[in-house]
Write a structure and sequence with these properties.
The protein is of the alpha/beta class. It has eight helices and seven strands; from the N terminus they run βαβαβαβαβαβαααβ. The protein has two domains: 208 residues, 3-Layer(aba) Sandwich (Rossmann fold), CATH 3.40.50.720; 36 residues, no CATH class. 48% of the residues lie in helices and 14% in strands. α5 links the parallel β5 and β6. α6 crosses α7. Bound molecules: NADP nicotinamide-adenine-dinucleotide phosphate. NADP nicotinamide-adenine-dinucleotide phosphate binds next to α1 and α6.
């Protein structure tokens, strides 16, 4: 399949590891100019050099930025624009909010999760629109969670703000379709990354089960019978964020091995 990504500029936030990293690598493999970002400069340096080594694409750069901070987002966009020009494909990703239920989450954690999970998407999207509108072409893919379709136990912050992202994306898809800017939201469910490993460790502490037992119990709930691998998720991100996708917009799509039972 021709993704039509050669020469396009892709910004993947939160991409030093996990789903962001796997997606950035696949975009680089397809010939895009790729800007990586996360909070740790050291992790980014390693991630960028690994992607250059594996894909042979030299147009891979990075900029350390915390997407929950306005000033970091501004600096990130100044950097990508001066290196590659305007962003054609925006992948809105961030670290997950802390685990907890209604009684355990403190007031200030709500405000932090709002900035991290929802306002980061608002701010990054605002920044890409002038360039996308000028070109009459753009793709925005938000990484959220399977919680956009079904709440996850002990993850009330995700359950609250990810559905906000899906609602925002649906509205944006309608507003931006006349400019050929397509907006979609992906919900990963149990893709084996450090985030899932740390949630399994929390569950292990809560239940007294070993981490392996927690994982086996969790895999037993997934029709595919296993955790996904980041590349299986990244394939969908790259498709939605490419010219190969010409007519899918406003959708919330799960990559979850069949975990969520709703239609
Ligand atoms: N994996 C799954 O099955 C799954 C399921 C549901 C939801 N999700 C969500 O999908 C997103 C990606 O998950 P993942 O599994 O890839 O997690 P991961 O392996 O833990 O990677 C998280 C990435 O986010 C970066 N990051 C964290 N906080 C950041 C911030 N404030 N600003 C910028 N970058 C930040 C991290 O790098 P630094 O530490 O260098 O900043 C890292 O590159 C998360 O929001 C997660 O909650 C994942």
């Amino acid at each position: 399949m021709d993704y039509g990504l050669t020469g396009k500029t892709v910004l993947v936030t939160a991409s030093s590891k996990g789903l962001g990293y796997a997606s950035a690598k696949l975009f680089a493999q397809e010939g895009a100019n790729v800007m990586l970002s996360s909070r740790s400069e050291e992790a980014l340096e390693q991630a960028a050099s690994q992607i250059v080594k594996e894909t042979g694409n030299q147009n891979v750069a990075y900029c350390a930025a915390d997407v929950s901070l306005v000033s970091d987002i501004e600096r990130l966009f100044d950097t990508v624009e001066s290196r590659f020009g305007g962003v054609d494909v925006l992948i809105n990703n961030a670290g997950g909010p802390p685990a907890g239920n209604f009684d355990s989450i403190a007031e200030e954690q709500w405000a932090k999760a709002f900035e991290l999970s929802l306002m980061s998407v608002v701010r990054c999207t605002k920044r890409v629109l002038p360039h996308m509108r000028q070109n009459q072409w753009g793709r925005i893919v938000n990484f959220a969670s399977s919680s956009i379709k079904q709440p996850i136990d002990n993850l009330i912050l995700s359950n609250t703000f990810r559905t906000g992202v899906a609602g925002l994306a649906k509205s944006l898809a309608i507003e931006l379709a006349p400019d050929n800017i397509l907006v979609n939201t992906l919900g990963p469910g149990r893709i084996a990354t450090q985030r899932v490993a740390s949630l399994d460790a929390i569950q292990s502490q809560k239940t007294g089960l070993s981490i392996d037992e927690v994982r086996r119990k969790s895999e037993a709930q997934i029709p595919m019978g296993r955790y996904g691998v980041p590349d299986e998720f990244a394939q969908m991100a790259v498709f939605l964020g490419s010219s190969a996708n010409g007519y899918i917009t406003g959708q919330s799509i799960l990559v979850d091995g069949g975990l969520v039972r709703s239609l």
